[in-house]
Automatic annotation (TrEMBL):
Residue ranges of domain BppU N-terminal in the record: 6-134
Residue stretches making up the SGNH hydrolase-type esterase domain: 629-802
SUPFAM superfamilies named in the record: SGNH hydrolase (SSF52266)
InterPro entries the record matches: BppU_N (IPR018913), SGNH_hydro (IPR013830), SGNH_hydro_sf (IPR036514)
Protein name: BppU family phage baseplate upper protein
Gene3D superfamilies: 2.60.40.3350, SGNH hydrolase
Origin species: Latilactobacillus sakei
Transmembrane feature ranges: none
Record's signal peptide: none
Length: 944
């Protein structure tokens, strides 16, 4: 009996389970039960092979290896139950080395480490434990004598698999065989075991419901059983049928589906259980009683046998089932002319072979009672994509790297692979192979290739892909497939235009920009949405198994786009589906869902970074370059010198603080915030090694409520995109400096829009505070500059908004001061000495300072020691605002010469007095000694 149970989720992105498992010394096997799920970032990981538990006792003296206490094993979904053996609990203390291992024919894979705390018990002491371990060791010696090198035991264990004894496994292989007490000391006949193992089917038996299962096998039966009414799998354990969860694609557990699982269109069927039998001699095609079909997660369980005559024809035969009458039929005509809305295509019979949908689907096809096995190695694509281009009959790799797999082997190709499709592929089946020795694709009309260098990937016929899932394929130009039903062809977007979806719990909106393009299969139709679409929808999605996925369809006649769980008309075109914030059934790169790209499948965001994070990156020579994403006020409008555009001019200031940081101008005049987001990749294409994104814009947005909401929406998308790319986002206010009510009629350039600029900036300040984003208030400083700068108005701007050179240079100084980690903005006279908080130095103050008896020039302490080198007394940054005052820098020195460097210009300070004036802007100041006596009080920044 279990007294404690733990639900363990082993996520491959972690390294150790955070909480230990607690057991008591002396706990028996099964007292503590672990329900284990293996996931990768929350998604189940399919396992294969035999499970083992391995550990060291708490004293690290003995190894524990066990494969007999696993229950409820569901390798396909990465789940199993394990009863901790009593060997673990014999020695009190912390078991630091414990893990599960999967043994395959190709090797072993270890899962994450877990921690077990064995609490001491009152009735067991270390001596008892030592006696127990000694007993185990004595058994080991006896076994070593009976079975040298462990060869007999190894064969028995491998034959036994995950069963507690060999008898249990043999019972499960054939329920009619009565296996009595097997003597494990005798070596099992290897041929006998292999014969039985070869008969084990990995295809579960399917029944209509749990009630039928109980009636059919009241006393249980070993194996895996699937009930078609709910798609769940059942196993017989502890005298009862136990629900082991959703079987693979038989249903969708909440929050458990992946985007590539919904590639098959609504009117195709994927065989998930049962078989289709082809008898070429008798010229019949038959479907078994237990045939289960997956139609985009709506399941058809026929529950009756069917046999049809194969007519004489040289044409391909389409094998259908009607989802309402459950009647099968063969059709020699084209699908587009014969399909009704209830017809489901199962596969195509051609040349004596049956081609069905889904990866390795031939497992469910029998040829005259025997499983058909072509003379070829079945391979698959595990990473990367192939592009099928029907416009020039070419298959080529669509990714820089493609990884192929076959029978446990993997081969990585970094080449641009391409192969021509035979021109008659609409008349004959073409087979695609990967030649792993020569790293190339081969496409021929020969099914049974004997060349061992070739891995069979898929078959292609009349534009359809067979014997493979669709998740690694993209398509171009479906125009040759006009005789097929529209839904059977994948649809691609031109992802120049992003479709933006905002989804809450039960409602959502879809924004489809004007110009969005689809490649669809309706008489070669190239579908383009000329106008912008805003679609609102209601989407409770309490359980996707109830209704399926909410899908968006296009009506050819009316050009309407609607959302429903089933299409309303035969010719309506399925575009994409939405479920819990993610897009399915299309090229996800064309979608943004709730600010998350790749259809909601990308990581939401990297950890949020602020300017402190960026500064640390910039001072450690990391990727910390700066991109300025804004409109014409940043791009540069009417400037006399393009080098004075402030994102460019900033490059003159950055070396004062950073060794290897560059600034890039990525702005575009006239762009709204939405256009900045839509064109983000193009605008930043030439900006390398970015670490910081300065976000401007807003002057070209709308200023009514809808415009402000849209501006904030796309500002939010830019911030999230920056964070997803690992950048630090900083929001900057617009430099709106013109008169509020100047209209074009009276000589103004912006037609009373300045009041809107004020609303945009208020929104930016509010957003930055609410979302913890750094804010650079350029509006404030630009306004102060125009009001208080000694420069003439004509030198600063000509249209009351776009700054000329002086404004841009000043704004670069504002930005530089803001980017520096420690920069004081001067508001009053400031002493710079030993006590200044933001001043840095390489001279220890406790060895180099001398208190002053009386305050001198405002200082209470000074530097006073003998210098032997060029020590940095003060390293300080400050910003002089445009406040109308005239600032200057004074030095106070009574010792050897001190060199004061101001933005690269060096001054020798030998006595007390004024060093220079400080016009408005950013300054990096250092004070360096010369060898000899140092008697230096400091610097003073002041105005008159």
């Amino acid at each position: 009996m279990a007294v404690r149970t733990y639900n363990l989720v082993l996520d491959t992105k972690e390294t150790v389970i955070p909480e230990p498992i607690y057991v008591r010394q002396g706990d028996g096997t099964g007292a503590v039960v672990l329900h284990v799920s293996v996931v990768d970032r929350g998604r189940p990981v399919a396992l294969s092979g035999n499970l083992q538990f391995k550990a060291m006792t708490a004293d690290n003296q003995n190894v524990i290896s066990d494969n007999s206490n696993f229950k409820d094993i569901d390798l396909a979904n990465g789940k199993f139950t394990y009863e901790l053996p009593n060997q673990v609990t014999m020695v009190p203390g912390r078991v630091k080395l414990a893990y599960f291992q999967v043994k395959e024919t190709t090797g072993e894979q270890s899962l994450l480490n877990i921690t077990i705390d064995v609490k001491p018990a009152a009735d067991i002491n270390p001596k008892n434990a030592a006696d127990y371990i000694a007993l185990i060791e004595s058994w080991s010696k006896i076994l070593a004598g009976v079975d040298p090198n462990g060869t007999i035991l190894k064969e028995v264990v491998e034959a036994r698999g995950n069963y507690s004894n060999l008898a249990g496994r043999e019972d499960d292989q054939d329920n009619a065989i009565a296996v009595t007490n097997s003597n494990l000391a005798n070596k099992a006949d290897k041929t006998y075991i292999n014969d039985y193992l070869s008969q084990v089917s990995y295809v579960p038996e399917t029944v209509a419901s749990l009630d039928e299962l109980k009636t059919k096998y009241p006393n249980g039966k070993p194996g895996l059983f699937v009930t078609a009414d709910n798609g769940h799998k059942y196993i017989w354990t502890d005298g009862a049928w136990k629900d082991a969860g959703v079987y693979q694609s038989q249903g969708i557990a909440k929050e458990s589906i992946g985007w590539d699982m919904i590639k098959q269109p609504l009117t195709r069927a994927v065989i998930t259980s049962g078989e289709v039998k082809i008898d070429v001699s008798a010229k019949t095609i038959a479907a078994s009683e237990d045939l289960v079909l997956d139609v985009n997660f709506n399941f058809i369980y026929v529950n009756k046998e069917s046999k049809l005559a194969i007519p004489e024809t040289n044409d391909p035969l389409y094998y259908y089932i009607d989802r309402t009458t459950l009647e099968y039929r063969l059709d020699t005509k084209s699908a587009a002319k014969t399909l009704t809305n209830n017809s489901v295509l199962i596969g195509i019979l051609y040349g004596g072979m049956f081609y069905s949908f889904g990866g390795h689907s031939d497992e469910h096809v029998n040829y005259v009672g025997q499983k058909y096995r072509p003379k070829r190695n079945f391979g698959e694509i595990v990473y990367g994509d192939l592009n099928i281009d029907y416009s020039n009959n070419t298959i080529r790799t669509a990714t820089k790297q493609t990884i192929f797999s076959c029978n446990g082997q993997t081969k990585t190709s970094n080449s641009a692979l391409a192969v021509k499709i035979p021109v008659d592929s609409d008349q004959r089946i073409a087979y695609v192979y990967y030649d792993f020795l020569n790293d190339k694709l081969i496409c021929v009309n020969v099914a049974d290739f004997l060349n061992t260098n070739l891995w069979y990937l898929f078959a292609i016929y009349n534009g359809e892909i067979f014997d493979a899932t669709g998740k690694h394929f993209t398509f171009i130009d479906r125009s040759r497939l006009a005789d097929r039903e529209p839904e059977t062809s994948p649809i691609l977007f031109d992802d120049t235009y992003k479709i933006v979806i905002s989804e809450a719990d039960e409602v959502g909106t879809v924004h489809i920009p004007a110009g969005t393009c689809f490649y669809v299969n309706v008489n070669g139709l190239y579908l383009r949405i000329p106008d912008q679409r805003e679609i609102e929808y209601s989407n409770p999605q309490s359980d996707v198994n109830d209704k399926g996925l909410l899908t968006f369809f296009y009506v050819v006649e009316t050009k309407e786009i609607y959302a429903d769980y089933f299409k309303r008309g035969y010719a309506d075109i399925r575009l994409f589906s939405v479920y819990r914030g993610k897009v399915y059934g299309s090229n996800v790169k064309a979608y943004v869902v709730n600010g998350i790209e790749d259809g909601g499948w990308s990581n939401n965001e990297n950890p949020k970074r602020d300017l402190i994070d960026w500064y640390q990156l910039a001072t450690s020579s990391g990727k910390a370059n700066i991109a300025w994403l804004g409109d014409s006020t940043w791009e540069g409008y009417r400037v006399k010198n393009p080098d004075n555009i402030f994102p460019v001019y900033l490059n003159k200031l950055l070396p004062n603080e950073f060794n290897d940081v560059k600034s890039f101008n990525c702005s575009k005049g006239g762009y709204s915030t939405k256009q900045l987001y839509d064109n983000y990749d193009a605008l930043t294409a030439n900006a390398s090694d970015l670490g910081l994104l300065m976000i401007g814009g807003g002057l070209n947005d709308g200023y009514d409520l809808a415009g402000l909401n849209e501006s904030e929406k796309y500002l939010d998308l830019i911030v999230k995109k920056a964070r997803k790319n690992g950048l630090t986002p900083v929001i900057a206010t617009t430099q709106s400096t013109a008169l509020l009510y100047a209209s074009k009629a009276t000589g103004g350039d912006w037609n009373k829009q300045q009041s809107g600029f004020d609303l945009i900036n208020k929104m930016k300040r509010r957003y930055a505070e609410r979302n913890n984003v750094d804010l650079l208030d350029l509006e404030k400083y630009t306004h102060d500059f125009i009001e208080n700068s000694p420069a003439s108005m004509a030198d600063m701007f000509t249209d009351y908004l776009h700054g000329q050179d002086p404004i841009h240079v000043f704004e670069a100084n504002v930005a530089m001061a803001y980017l520096s980690q420690h920069c004081d903005f001067m508001e009053k006279n400031q002493l710079i000495g030993i006590t200044t908080m933001n001043a840095r130095s390489n001279v220890p103050y406790n060895k180099a300072y001398q208190p002053l008896g009386e305050v001198e020039d405002g200082f209470k302490v000074k530097f006073n020691y003998t210098a032997t080198d060029n020590d940095v007394l003060i390293d300080y940054q400050l910003f002089i605002p445009a406040d109308g005052n005239t600032w200057h820098l004074d030095g106070f020195n009574a010792g050897n010469t001190v060199k004061v460097t101001i933005n690269g210009k060096i001054y020798d300070v030998t006595t007390d007095g004024k060093i220079c004036e400080l016009p408005i802007g950013y300054y990096h100041i250092t004070c360096t000694t010369t060898a000899g006596t140092v008697d230096f009080k400091g610097l003073k920044v002041s105005y008159e």
